[in-house]
Amino acid sequence: MLIVGELINSTRRQIQPLLEARDGAAIVNLARRQIEAGAHLVDVNCATLMEGEVECLAWAIQTIQEACDARISVDSPNPLALRRGLEVHRGKAMLDSINLEHERWSGFLPVVREFRPEVVALCMDDSGIPTTAAGKLALATTLVEGLTGAGIPPQDIYIDPLIFPIATDSGCVRVFLEALGLIKKRFPEVRTICGLSNVSFGLPHRAQINQVFLVLCLAHGMDAFILDPLDRRLMANLTTAQMLLDQDEFCRRYLGMVRAGKFDFLKTQRA
Amino acid sequence: MDRTEILDALKQAILNYDEDGARALVAQGLEAGIPPLDLVDGGLSRGIKAIGEKFQAMEVFLPELMLAAKVFLGALELIEPTMLATDEGRPRQGVAVIGTVKGDVHSIGKDLYATLLKVAGFEVHNLGVNVHPGKFVEKAQETGAQIVGLSALMTTTMPSMREVVELFVARGIRDRHTILIGGSPVTQAFCDKIQADGYGETAQDGVDLAVRIAGQRGRPC
Ligand code: B12
To answer: What are the DSSP E strand ranges found in chain A?
Structure first.
């Protein structure tokens, strides 16, 4: 299981000013807290800074890596920013994300070839996001073939089948999970990843929906998540579901989390 | 490391659920000439008892108890061949059928008993855990075992020992087999009450008893 912490993202209202002000202490603190909470990588996205993005992304990566031993998921739609980010990154980075839209694919592939990062690859192309499991599998196949052709080993590829809001299509989670199964079966070595928040768009109690979606994804073989690791309930559910799915021999991780106080919030909730 | 340090480290390895560590320490202990049974009693068993106490205090939980048991059995597996090897050329004592009674899955003490019986020269048929009374009877008849050893670790499963004795009576073969019982909640008084043939407080006591009885080829008392 791989967890990517999603909090350092300039689209979040609180974050953009911190990035603009180059508030290193605050950014490092947020990176550190995510790692301590169980994230394996920290996502950094500065896309809303527009022309300031390239420099800001490089600054953020360097600042975080100087202070703590974290790998970064370099998150940008801009090949120039990506290149700069991967240049300054120490160790193996993750690139978030490539897809089959012509411009994105041709712009990112040289960067992928040059730096060989782990790659998040989205099942979409110029005609959009497929709404059937077979359609998602077809794009996943093209992505895997293209990326392995560029020298990325299958285990470094993270396919995101892409989820729609359940509010707009009551069958989309079923299709998503079906696609997940097909992809895992066809490419056992390739990994799968997804974010959680899209599914709940447009509905009340979004967190509740995201929590259950996480568990469903896990049960269907999801290998990685981009999520908020500071959400204690989410992390507790993740650990519990992993235990129930035979990913935690002798319940060691579960009990470890309990002893580390990560379930203490349940007590205060019940009282 | 001296003897005490090795034994303490063995206990600690159980407490740390460290199977590789426990096996390495067993190897080291055997090399240092510590008698195999001392490694069990002075090291491994102390560890599992300490875990049991923590379990009762709700400091450790059921899966951890099971893991500790796995570590114990993993280390015991390494000790057994040495025990057998050091007793090469011993006289053949007889046949024993052993198991943990119906409803009870505690295997550690019973497996230890099996090992020590083998060391003493018995041919041992270990029926495992949660063994139905009928299985004991069947296997005893099939192998002509002199000794039938029953283990129970819970007050709630001790009554099953009586069932086994009664089944041997019902089948009319009670006098052909010697039934020995053991396990931490079992007592001599209980043994007398259910009219089993003998009680061993420790596995070694149970083996001494078995050797004596097999020698007499009859039933005591
Ligand atoms: C390890 C353990 C487990 C492990 C067993 C793993 C395994 N593979 O064996 C697991 C986790 C599976 C387990 C499960 C349970 N356990 Co438990 N377990 C223990 C524990 C901690 C240690 C037992 C042990 O192995 N001791 C070490 C060995 C070497 O000692 P021993 O078995 O007594 O054997 C010695 C002698 O008695 C003798 N001996 C043994 N058998 C025989 C047979 C003969 C013929 C002879 C002559 C001698 C002999 O030789 C040995 C040494 O010389 C004890 C607590 C304790 N301190 O005893 C609880 C204990 C036995 N378990 C207990 C309970 C209640 C359970 C559970 C119901 C779970 C729970 N809710 O707590 C389940 C029961 C499942 C079932 N249906 O059986 C209770 C029983 C209470 C009671 N009613 O009497 C105990 C006493 C703990 C407690 N205080 O609550 N358990």
So the answer is: 2-9, 41-45, 71-75, 94-100, 118-125, 157-160, 191-195, 224-227
B146 CA to chain A: closest CA distance, Å? 39
Is the model's pTM score more than 0.90? no
pLDDT tens digits, one per residue of B122-174: 999 999 999 999 999 999 999 999 999 999 999 999 999 999 999 999 999 99
Ligand 1 atom closest to B103 (CA): 77
Question: Does domain B3-85 correspond to CATH entry 2.60.60.30?
Answer: no
- Whether B58 is in the pocket of ligand 1, judged by its Cβ within 6 Å, is no
Residue B181, ligand 1, Cβ within 6 A:
yes
Q: By C-alpha distance, which of B131, B212, B208 is closest to B139?
A: B131
- Residues 5-24 of chain B with CB under 8 A from chain A are 17
- CATH number (3.20.20.20, 3.30.1060.10, 3.40.50.300, 3.20.20.70) of A2-231 reads 3.20.20.20
How far, in Å, is the centroid of ligand 1 from the Cα of B71?
15
Taking the Cβ of residue A247 and every Cβ of chain B, the question of whether any pair is shorter than 8 Å is answered with: no
Task: Please name the residue whose Cα sits nearest to atom 25 of ligand 1.
Answer: B108
Domain boundaries, chain B: 3-85, 94-217
**Numbered ranges of CATH 3.20.20.20 in chain A:** 2-231
Give the largest CA-CA distance in chain A: 56
Which tokens in the block code for residue A115?
């730096």
Q: Which residue of B has its CA nearest to A259?
A: B59
Task: Give per-residue pLDDT as tens, A159-214.
Answer: 999 999 999 999 999 999 999 999 999 999 999 999 998 999 999 999 999 999 99
Partnered with residue A192 across adjacent β-strands are A159
